[in-house]
Structure to design on (199 residues):
């Protein structure tokens, strides 16, 4: 993939790159069976998903379009469970692909999506599970996110709906921001709109 094509894909929807803070990764870890290989398909090595899961003792395969690993074309040779924060603009396609794999997953997604007909269509024959939180996850620097998020899961949780409290002692931003700051901005390619490049 050429850099210009990569930039077009990355910036197609400016809301797609939101980096999950560590405190939002921790609650899902207790529900992951030991010895499983986790694929984080929208994550650089500095994603909090990758860091926190490795710290918890899991083998993690991470991939990101920045490295030429498009989720819709790439799959690591060995993995058991997908855990990540997918691009919101591609949520239907992402969930379709995850369900087609036939393996467990946990994807962080806006609860607003439940107002759409897509979850019904996608999950009417497959159990949809939720790990829901008592607070909103804040993804950006100093910006209040106007929606709640939950992990939309399949074949992972012990029951269909679980509630968890978020521990906000450490509100540090995801270290993945550093990786994305290395990417040229839209202005560098003559496109107006700046940079706001999800995980």
């Amino acid at each position: 993939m050429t850099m210009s094509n990569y930039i077009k894909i990355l910036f197609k929807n400016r809301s797609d790159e939101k980096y999950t803070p560590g405190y939002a990764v921790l609650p899902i870890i207790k529900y992951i069976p030991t010895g499983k290989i986790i694929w984080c398909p929208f994550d650089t090595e500095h994603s909090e998903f990758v860091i926190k899961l490795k710290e918890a003792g899991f083998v993690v395969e991470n991939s990101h379009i920045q490295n030429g690993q498009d989720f819709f074309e790439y799959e690591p040779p060995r993995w058991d469970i997908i855990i990540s924060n997918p691009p919101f603009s591609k949520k239907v396609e992402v969930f379709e692909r995850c369900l087609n794999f036939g393996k467990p997953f946990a994807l962080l997604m806006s609860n607003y999506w439940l107002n759409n007909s897509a979850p019904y269509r996608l999950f009417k024959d497959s159990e949809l599970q939720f790990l829901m939180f008592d607070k909103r996850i804040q993804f950006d620097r100093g910006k209040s996110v106007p929606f709640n998020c939950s992990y939309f899961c399949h074949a992972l949780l012990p029951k269909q709906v679980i509630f968890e409290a978020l521990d906000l002692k450490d509100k540090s931003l995801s270290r993945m921001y550093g990786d994305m700051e290395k990417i040229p901005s839209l202005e560098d390619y003559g496109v107006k709109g700046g940079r706001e490049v999800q995980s």
